[in-house]
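idk why but the lab printer keeps eating my pages so im just putting this in chat instead. protein + zinc ion:
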Amino acid sequence: MRQTHVFLLVALLLAGSLWVYRTYFGTPRPPHRRPAGATSPGNRRVEKTDDEWRAQLTRSQYNVMRGRDTEWPNSSPLNHEHGTGSYVCASCRNPLFSSNTKFESHTGWPSFYAPVVSNAVYTEPDGNRTEVRCAVCDAHLGHVFTDGPAPTGLRYCMNGVAMTFTPGGE
Ligand SMILES: [Zn+2]
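predcted complex ->
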């Protein structure tokens, strides 16, 4: 019995070190390729190496935008942002959402019913969910669900850490 415990402990330690190694020293992530036919506003594109993204982004931004992590619910100050303005991609400043389409979803993540223009983002299947990515830099932003309010019925459930709020506009 004792031997089993020691074995389990060693296995856990090994798995933990492997996780730390792969997270911090692992091989660079290959760039994500947007689907064929996807466009972006003005056909703008921002493509960087994994090292460049690591240098530019904070660790939590990197983990969400390049590693497809999800931030903790209610962790983003943008949940409480009610001003007029636009929400731009934190990586490439591509305008993603307008404050006009923001609504309180009570999920703990900033939520919108439509992107500012249809090709500001693109979607890809992600298991039984639909992933939303920035059309300019391919950053993972969040997911879109079909339980949103009128007029679209969509709920773009975004990671606040992936966006910067820019006040102004209408
Ligand atoms: Zn972007």
